[in-house]
Amino acid sequence: MGTSDTRGTRERLIDSTRELLWERGYVGTSPKAIQERAAAGQGSMYHHFHGKPDLALAAIGRSAEELRARAEAGFSGPGTVTERITGYLRREREVLKGCPVGRLTQDPDVMADPELRRPVEETFAWLTGRLAALLTEGRASGEFGGGLDPAATATALVAVVQGGYVLARASGSAEVFGRAVDGALGLLAAHSR
Amino acid sequence: MGTSDTRGTRERLIDSTRELLWERGYVGTSPKAIQERAAAGQGSMYHHFHGKPDLALAAIGRSAEELRARAEAGFSGPGTVTERITGYLRREREVLKGCPVGRLTQDPDVMADPELRRPVEETFAWLTGRLAALLTEGRASGEFGGGLDPAATATALVAVVQGGYVLARASGSAEVFGRAVDGALGLLAAHSR
Fold first, then answer.
1. pLDDT < 50 stretches in chain B
2. Is it the case that residue A190 has pLDDT exceeding 90?
3. In A, which residues are within 8 Å of B164 by CB distance?
4. Domains parsed from chain B with CATH numbers
């Protein structure tokens, strides 16, 4: 087996674990199911990972990384703060599947393990901090009025996205996610000068 | 067994199912676990319910009813619309356990069953409609400016609560829920005249 095959197997194992965590949760994801989906043998799995917790940590870390990269691409792009936040909130998402990071908070086994919970916590702390920095920038430049509280507003915006996923799943329709985002942007607009 | 005992058993079965759905999800909740927690025999369980789906439906219906009753108590109370919405958003919640209705949206077995999903969908539709009616009332009375979109804003407020639960669980602290609510109220205040 060459180096590229080995790397391919490792990536397939991570991708399969991400999919299974998303579809079935931690407790419903067996090492056997991961191996089957990745078309990898047991020996190959244990060559790359110590076991299911180690694989789950790699999978969650990868989901968190991608979430950050996608968000940062919007945040550091061109435009006013409102335009960049609008772009972030309105970008395409697989709304009905739920947030690959946020839905882990409803997985009791992930939340009970401090190592698995850490990347989830860090992702939302980063996201909230990044939005708060943008809102602070917008307040300093006069785009928003002085009454806007960057930290609380940033937390509310992250909550709208996470709650938007919940409402979309409840109604079986992505439309309600867009309505929650519209509502948040309408409220933010009231702070614009 | 007298009528009051029979009623007591039925209630205990519903309560136990609610607790187990909350703690372990649908797939992790066995009829045996429900019977054990309710201190009820198998015959007694099947006297009151056809089986696990029937019990789950009663349990979810009860959680939905309680959510509506608690919310309505705040919505129909005294005070301005802003005061009533503030009371609703700030009332005490077991934040770290998650919303007993909202977290069902992350339970694949509940979402896959139209009968079990219906009370979840109806609860959020009712809640959003009720908040939209309040916001419309506040706009008509001049409490809010004409730029406020009641339906979108109501959806955003429900999303903030649901997302607040997600962020609180991610950080293992109820504080972030309060910050999300503060952010939402700050944005709403910008619409006040």
1. 1-3
2. no
3. 159, 163
4. 3-189 (1.10.357.10)
